[in-house]
Design brief:
This protein has about 220 residues and is an alpha+beta fold. Helix content is about 50%, strand content about 15%. The mean pLDDT is about 85.
Length: about 220
C-alpha cells in the first residue's frame, strides 16, 4: 500500500500557467487573486468534513464533545492565522493545505514523513516558479546574506511577523518585486499551509535591514 498523503488539497495542475499568471500580475491583480484563491477550498468546508468524520466514529458523547471542542480550538487558531495573513504587506496565494494531525492516520505519520511530502511539493512549485521567472531563486538566508540560525532567531523575535516569510522561504526577485514560496504551521496538530506571496522590492530591502539590525 502506498504512503498516506498528508494533503487535504494541493494545486498541482498546469503549474506553469498558474505561476506565469501570478508572476506577470501587477500588485493589485496579485492581491485580488490571493483574496479569491486558486483552489476553491474554504476553511469552513474543511471544518465541516472533519466534524462529520468525528461524528461518524460512533464515540461516546463525552469523548465526542471533547474532540469537537479541540477541533473548534484548532480551527479558531487557523482562522486567526488566516485573518492575520490577510493583513500582510505581502498578499499570499494558498497553494496547498494538509490534513490536520490530531487523529489517525495522519497523527501516526512521523515528522520525517510529513517533511518529506512537503519537500516534494515544494520542489514542484520551485521548479514551476523558476521557469516562470527565468531564475532558480534562492533561500531567504542567502538572499539576506545571513546564516540560517540568524534567520531562526529573527523568526523567534517576530522580526518576520506580518511579512508571510519564514526562515525556510524561497525567494525570487523579478522586475521590482520579490516573490516568495512559504510554508506555515501554527501548531504540530494544525494543517501545514504552502503559500506564494509577492512584495515590493523596497519592502523586502527594508525587511532585510531589520534582520541585519537584529543580529
Amino acid at each position: 500500500m502506498g504512503a498516506i498523503s498528508i494533503w487535504q488539497w494541493a494545486v498541482t495542475d498546469d503549474l506553469g500557467t498558474l505561476f506565469a499568471r501570478l508572476i506577470s500580475a501587477d500588485e493589485a491583480t496579485f492581491a485580488r487573486i490571493a483574496a479569491e484563491g486558486v483552489s476553491g477550498k474554504r476553511l469552513e468546508d474543511m471544518a465541516a468534513a472533519a466534524e462529520a468524520k468525528m461524528r461518524a466514529m460512533g464515540l461516546p458523547e463525552a469523548e465526542l464533545a471533547t474532540m469537537l471542542k479541540g477541533l473548534e480550538a484548532m480551527l479558531e487558531e487557523e482562522a486567526d492565522w488566516a485573518d492575520a495573513a490577510a493583513a500582510y504587506a505581502a498578499p499570499e496565494v494558498g497553494l496547498a493545505t494538509s490534513h490536520m494531525f490530531y487523529d489517525d492516520p495522519y497523527a501516526a505519520l512521523d515528522y520525517e514523513e510529513r517533511e518529506a511530502q512537503v519537500a516534494v511539493l515544494f520542489e514542484q512549485y520551485k521548479a514551476a516558479i523558476a521557469q516562470a521567472v527565468g531564475a532558480p531563486g534562492s533561500g531567504l538566508a542567502d538572499a539576506f546574506g545571513v546564516g540560517l540560525e540568524q534567520l531562526y532567531r529573527a523568526e523567534d523575535a517576530d522580526v518576520l511577523m506580518d511579512t508571510g516569510l519564514v526562515a525556510l522561504s524561497w525567494i525570487w526577485s523579478h522586475e521590482g518585486a520579490v516573490f516568495t514560496l512559504n510554508q506555515h504551521q501554527e501548531d504540530k496538530e494544525l494543517p501545514i499551509d504552502v503559500t506564494f506571496a509577492r512584495m515590493p522590492l523596497a519592502d523586502f530591502d527594508a525587511l532585510k535591514a531589520r534582520v541585519l539590525a537584529a543580529q
